[in-house]
Design goal:
This protein is an alpha/beta fold. It has a domain of about 150 residues: Rossmann fold (3-Layer(aba) Sandwich), CATH 3.40.50. Helix content is about 30%, strand content about 20%. The protein contains six helices and seven strands; from the N terminus they run αααβαβββαβαββ. It has a seven-stranded mixed β-sheet, with helices on both faces. The N and C termini lie far apart (about 35 Å). It holds the Pfam family N6-adenineMlase.
Length: about 210
């Protein structure tokens, strides 16, 4: 069962809520354009964010910055895992010619369109992972837990620590700083991630290595 405590869900600003009806109209129009024109399945927005699943896509600039940081941290031939961070995954796939591999762990089964790189993931069962997903097999894990609660972060942290060889890039609310340090040993960065739809909550990035986000 997904945690449905409203206090844990990143809150939308009043301006964003006012634009909700317009957003859905735009969404319907985009769906029509996709079917008539064809589109890049890996581009941000090719799968619309679902607020019922506490999904909030990063802005294009933020997704690019985080993707480039993950590539640099992973190194040549590196492996990157995106845990509940699909907009970073999509931005990584736009750079398909680069020398790295990536997979996406995500609760939303719409992302199964990405084939073998998609791994169904429910943070409530943090180690319920495929057998071929070996421990400590990723050079970096980038994660954005869906809820601002210690329980969600703690369980997601189990997954992160299982997957990573060491490097962690976490995106979550500023109010989670103490919990992030406690469960993952990460410290806050100067870089401030932005979302395509404004959130009232202050979001931050956290790392446990010398990153380019300072």
């Amino acid at each position: 069962k997904m945690d449905d405590d409203d206090d844990d869900i990143p809150q939308l600003s009043s301006h964003t809520l006012a634009a909700l009806q317009e957003f859905y109209l735009e969404q319907q129009q985009r769906e029509g354009m996709k079917t008539s024109q064809g589109f890049n399945q890996y581009s941000i927005g090719s799968i619309e964010e679902d607020w019922q699943l506490s999904q909030f896509w990063y802005s294009d600039e933020t997704a690019s910055c985080l993707a480039n940081e993950a590539i640099a941290a992973a190194g040549k031939g590196g492996r990157i895992a995106c845990v509940s961070a699909p907009s970073v995954y999509q931005k990584l796939k736009e750079q398909d010619g680069k020398d790295f591999s990536v997979c996406i762990l995500e609760y939303d089964r719409r992302f199964s369109v990405y084939g073998e790189e998609f791994i169904f993931y429910d943070y409530n069962h943090p180690l319920n992972l495929p057998e071929n997903l070996l421990p400590h097999s990723f050079d970096i894990v980038i994660a954005d837990p869906p809820y601002l609660s210690e329980e969600c972060l703690q369980k997601t942290a189990e997954t992160i620590k299982y997957l990573t060889k060491g490097k962690i890039l976490l995106c979550t609310g500023a109010i989670m700083e103490e919990h992030a340090a406690k469960h993952l040993g990460v410290k806050i960065c100067k870089f401030i991630p932005k979302h395509s739809r404004n959130l009232a909550n202050e979001f931050r990035c956290y790392v446990n290595y010398a990153s380019g986000l300072e």
